[in-house]
Amino acid sequence: MAETRVSPIPLLQDELDIVIPTIRNLDFLEMWRPFFQPYHLIIVQDGDPSKIIKVPEGFDYELYNRNDINRILGPKASCISFKDSACRCFGYLVSKKKYIFTIDDDCFVAKNPSGEEINALQQHVKNLLSPSTPFFFNTLYDPYREGTDFVRGYPFSLREGVPTAVSHGLWLNIPDYDAPTQLVKPLEKNTRFVDAVMTIPKGTLFPMCGMNLAFNRELIGPAMYFGLMGDGQPIGRYDDMWAGWCTKVICDHMGWGVKTGLPYIWHSKASNPFVNLKKEYKGIYWQEELIPFFQSAILPKDCTTVQKCYIELSKQVRAKLGKVDEYFIKLADAMVTWIEAWDELNQSGKSSELPNGPAK
Amino acid sequence: MPLANINDSEVDIVIGALQSDLTSFMNEWRTIFSRFHLIIVKDPDLKEELKIPEGFNFDVYSKSHIDRVVGSSSSIVFSGYSCRYFGFLVSRKKYIVSFDDDCIPAKDSKGFLIDPVAQHLANLTTPATPFFFNTLYDPYREGADFVRGYPFSLRNGVTCALSCGLWLNLADLDAPTQALKPQQRNSLYVDAVITVPSRAMMPVSGINIAFDRESVGPALLPALKLAGEGKFRWETMEDIWSGMCLKVVCDHLGLGVKSGLPYVWRQDRGSAIESLKKEWEGVKLMEEIVPFFQSMRLPQTVATTEDCVIEMARTVKQQLGPSSPVFTRAADAMVEWVKLWKAVGSGSSPL
Asked: Where are glycans found on this sequence (chain A) (predicted)?
């Protein structure tokens, strides 16, 4: 758990891209330099493409602004949000690496209770490289961690675990609350360091926050579409939620794991709760329909790839959520466009197909 | 320290005594236990008299009580760790907290003594959230809340029926695991309480638990007795079985199960390697037990805890019975337990 301040041994530096959406600046990278410098960055610049975003010296990066997105995707660019950090998923699309780590530009290096700086990226890599255990809950949390194990009663046949598709990290300082909660508790800070990583059980949904997130792009990449948010859309701040629900349903279907917990980053910026409320407003009551939809979503056995799962989900979104609001019909269209764009840009890339159909 | 706004008189602390000299155990717990009424059940196999120090409010039950209440021709065997269930049966309180007699209070990561009774009661008196996972864990804890994306309609939560605590020092690992890592001790203090999601199965350890007796009392049951069951946790599965039944009941009735804090300090006792030589059966049985419970769905018409247990017993006998007599006996014990509970456990006056 304790990480050194000096540049650590790079782990998977040729297999992982760091995707950062930004509309302001990338000053935060200075603090991350010892941990991020060995890696390739994909910067997705939101907002005005004529603005120059300066990337600190010494980083290896590619930067895409709206003009680039339009040029690369052509008419398919319609599926990439504008004026919302949802645009980050363009970075997943163009990456050629096996793993993605994405982080917001107001997230900094946190310290553990001993005062040592946390190398969030390294913890994510550990999470992704060790198995998940979605079929039976281990009361001592991550059994593969040094100093812990599976508890009495944990069946041996389940101790190999399954591949980990997603590693969801948390935040100290400003917690990821919705607008109503922010309004009620404007001063609340998350100071509790929970020293655990755990697998979210199969069949259980969760709110996936995109601030501090890593995933196996080769496994689950096509499901990480962050939806239609921001400018011209009736909703915002539900991009990562949407991706998380789709991703979890698909991971459950494919037999892959989703972990949550460590690592922590330090979230510095409290966004304006009134602005947030306007963005989230529709989401707050739409999610009452969305949750039962995802909880009961069933993917047929012949959905043996993530793309097939995702297209199937888009059909169900159109059929069942289209009735809630016509936004969901647009979203279903965008989900299809996303997969088309994914397949076009990732033709030679590997995609994970299940040989004998999905896991139970 | 979490404050549970319930009366101490609503709580019984039940201790199954597998060792006769409880002096040091009780003294370690004195500051925490002395407020409460204790039910101490002596393992009927224990020959020596119990030694309990002064200054506690307690009742002791031993073999003679058990025989008188239960009768001799019972498929339920209250020996070893299962003796505590007799305490659950005769209690008349709403909440029960139970610890193994080789556990003492632990210290948290800041060095403060943990009051596990207070934490368990806080867990039981705040809602559980089994239908959607909160990434900041227990949203009812001080300094935490539901995160963005958590549906508002699910924020009232449900009643928490079971609180499963953890262990520092000697963790509840099975014999093969501990035997492979004989020096391994648990020093990781994870400052979280988590609701175990609905339909997610888990191994419930009986070492450090608390429950709402009023809601789910009959579902904590002494049923699965291994042929080689012994006086070490490595040699038993009774709590794991009971916990699986309880989780199915909770999921069916819409009640919650929490896991995490509080920690207790579990003293070193016994040898994993010695237990391993004796007992393998439990590990093998889990391979059948887990898929069985994972797929168990109770009919909608089953609406009480007692009826849930009867229905489960029926299914156990039907589906697991053919593979091992241990399951048939467990099913019989479950049915008998419900009868016993109705006769003895649900009265309003104590024994």
From this structure: 152
